[in-house]
């Protein structure tokens, strides 16, 4: 959902982190989503960043140079995949604010990839990036495996409308020019370079693994943002599928998701929380919403609930939010201090007027009003998510981190909160486990490399103290993270690691 791209600053190596090495994990329980049961007392060998053997019973001789890890009482699971992130901006800072505080921005950028890893995210998909943005992010010693999706909005529609005219056409280079829009093009831009076929071809050449497009009339009912024509997105889908790229649609309303289903997109990049004017029943979903969800299930379309979008806006307004001690694990102390300043609170101040709490000074009254105003939207998303879970829809895990200049979408921790919201909506631990591993990998065509614990797969793995197929609490205290064969201790990844 993020609306702009900006520079990413390269960070230094994390002291004490080991390079990829030969590893042997003995007496471990293997939890992998393609298996119907957990494998007991297994030995897993890793070499050159890949899983080379998984054995039970009689053990082979230990490799001479392998580091041996005692897996007694631990579960070995695939690393988590977040298929909806935005890595261009520092959470809670606008590009202009980062330019004013470059040291603060650099400190934050050094920590952000570590925070994703701290919570077990070994693979990220940036849904609005470019080769330059990806290169800047990857020019670091320690980052999760990261891929990018090319963003293809229609000319001056969402989210291009939020960017200044001077930069929007370079920040979002894969925009689509529909017939009849050529007259509004700035000088120097050729409409022939912005057909659905042309932008897909450019994305593919640039290394994108997916296409993201948008259907959004605006959050304010008074807005009437330009939305794409059905034939435009059908052409985009056809061009993308021709070169093996899945298509994701930013869509959170019944109108938008109906449009996406008719266009043939592969993934809804949001859950369904805007039900239009149809009155919600006391429980369950409306007939219209059910029809949309049933069609998504029938077509096997991926569906990312992304609870943390709305919750991030809500949390930004809660006076108690910045006192959460978990934030110190994923955000530098200097950044947390800046969030509490008038400058750091500027976006919150803008939002507060819309919620009618700009002049309210009583923290309890603010929290009560914000929660009351938010509950209807969250209730609709919870109901539609529950329906998808109960009817075996293709749930995919994504957080939209950060969805705007919110300090309430912290890297890594945002994923842990997303899991809690999914669980509260009736999504089982095993469904969450699969959504964040194998199903995510399949949806983005990465399953030959990641998503399961199998011989030949990349060694992006987690050592957990509890069974992730049975409880999401398994992700609250990760014992070790393995990233391409690099053994990482979460205590060395935390933002407050130097504080004893």
Write the layout of secondary structure elements.
Blueprint lengths: L22 E8 L8 E9 L2 E7 L10 E4 L4 E4 L1 E6 L9 H6 L1 H17 L2 E6 L4 H8 L6 E7 L13 H7 L24 H11 L3 E5 L15 H13 L4 E4 L3 H10 L3 E2 L18 H13 L2 E2 L4 H10 L9 H4 L2 H7 L6 H9 L8 H28 L22 H12 L4 H7 L2 H6 L17 E4 L13 E6 L2 E3 L12
Parallel strand pairs: 1-4, 1-5, 6-7, 7-8, 8-9, 9-10, 10-11, 11-12
Antiparallel strand pairs: 1-2, 2-3, 5-13, 13-14, 14-15
Helix pairs in contact: 5-6, 6-7, 7-8, 9-13
Can you walk me through this structure?
The chain is α/β, with parallel strands linked by helices and 500 residues long. The chain folds into 2 domains: 23-78 and 451-492, Urease, subunit C, domain 1 (Roll); 80-313 and 368-443, Alpha-Beta Barrel (TIM Barrel), CATH 3.20.20. The chain is built from 16 helices and 15 strands. The strands form 2 sheets. Strands 1, 2, 3, 4, 5, 13, 14 and 15 form an 8-stranded mixed β-sheet that branches. A 7-stranded parallel β-sheet has the order 6-7-8-9-10-11-12. Helix 7 (254-263) runs parallel beside helix 8. The longest helix is centred in the last third of the chain and has 28 residues, at 363-390. The relative contact order is 0.17. The model is unreliable at 1-17 (pLDDT under 50).
